[in-house]
Design goal:
The complex is a heterodimer of chains A (about 300) and B (about 230). Chain A is built from 13 helices and 10 strands. Chain A is α/β, with parallel strands linked by helices and about 300 residues long. In chain A, the strands form 2 sheets. In chain A, strands 1, 2, 3, 4, 7, 8, 9 and 10 form an 8-stranded mixed beta sheet that branches. In chain A, strand 5, helix 8 and strand 6 form a beta-alpha-beta unit. The chains are: A alpha/beta (about 300), B mainly alpha (about 230).
Chain lengths: ~300, ~230
Amino acid sequence: MDINTGKRPYSPSVLVLFALWLFSVIILPLAGCGQTATPAAPLSTDVILATTTSTQDTGLLDDLIPIFEAQSGYKVKPVAVGTGQALAMGERGEADVLLTHAPDAEKPLVDSGAVINYRLVMHNDFIIVGPADDPAGVKKAAGLEDAFRAIAASGAPFVSRGDDSGTHKKELSLWKAAGAVPKGQPWYTESGTGMGQTLTIANEKQAYTLTDRGTYLAYMDKLDLRTVREGDAALLNIYHVMQVNPEKFPKVNAKGAEAFVEFMVAPETQKRIGAFGVERYGSPLFIPDAGSDESELGG
Amino acid sequence: MQLLWEGLKESIVLLFSGDREMLEIFWLSLKVAASAMAFGAALGLPLGVFLGVSNFRGRQALLSLANASMGLPPTVVGLWVALFLWRSGPLGDLRLIYTPWAIIVAEVILTTPILVALTAAATQAKRENLHEFLMSLGVNRFQYVRLLLREIRVSLLAAIIAGFGRVFSEVGAAMMVGGNIKGETRTLTTAIVLEVSKGAFDRALALSFILLAVSLSITALLTHVQQRFG
């Protein structure tokens, strides 16, 4: 106990406290003023885009958004979550515009009027990947449904996203179509993570999984998994853009959202989408579809 | 192992090439952590000292709350803060969601309990033997608290180091309330999550080395201050 030195006017701890206090009371509110000066603008210029992880993970958003921002003057805030969460954000008016890939789950939002200006943007496809020796014989299966039944019958491991994402929704609909109930089976694992992580887990377990082609291409050289099924019409992965209905949610940025929808379906943007990924993977990651009829895709 | 080495090399390239995106992420992480620590310390340290020296009903309940909250899961805090800050939430009109301020709010909630609990424990440990002695010397209340603070300065810095570790390494809440938006709310930790999900393991590793290096330097600096004046 150093009572003698304690007579010094200011001990270091008091100084440290004082400095912290000064910082928080004087400097931060000043910095905050700089911040609060902007919120006046965000009311009209910030556009919150709720989208799926695949558009971010492939780098498509990083490619398109700067162009939109330069053209329109709006500032896009892309929040990349699973399609389930993105749609839920739209349903609650937490986002201004949505870019998702689960038409069956999107339909109720269109019907209820939660979203408007629902437009087809692009598609790519899902593929089934699995171990090179294909223990379940998926390659030999006649149809897509037979392929899923073959996996269920063989008991070969299968890793599911299990996160209510667009890919997960698609996978569940395919099991349903095949008349199989995988949930609770010992060979069926739900990863609860994104596509990249799920592919890594499937690789470690040498399991089958359903993936979008883009993420698989990005991961391919790290994986010992092969494409065992592709090309079926039911494996199409269709992306729509839509704006959240401003009449239902007065706080949404309707003009900015509309501008983003129009941007996504504009001819120049569509051309850019069609060229995206060619340089790196040798083939495009997405096929632009604006203006076409959804029912004719994959024909 | 090859990957680790590649990541280390990449981190050095990233740091010194002046990659703009990298610098933005780096600065944002530092700014968010520093702001959260400043607010957390302004709230937590005085409250901790107060809880340490005082005797009142409910004091133990508050201490238990602080102790229990040291382990608050960041995702829980993130979810709750998001509920409040969403457009449909009670504070939605502040438009803080998906801004750095949202992350700061969440991190202040995460770090303050650590600062309160550790400060209170240190204060309490010293007050018993100091109080009578100092009072017998005839010091007044203010002098007493000042001398007490001097006695616990090492512990105060330990609390700050622990609190800083919490905010700088946090990812769950930052992801949820910040949204990992490029150029705005992308911090070192959320950027690592993104790079991993992209399959860019080398870049993720590079970022992790940078995160560790920064965290280590700041902790070393704080430890130096602690030992120098302790």
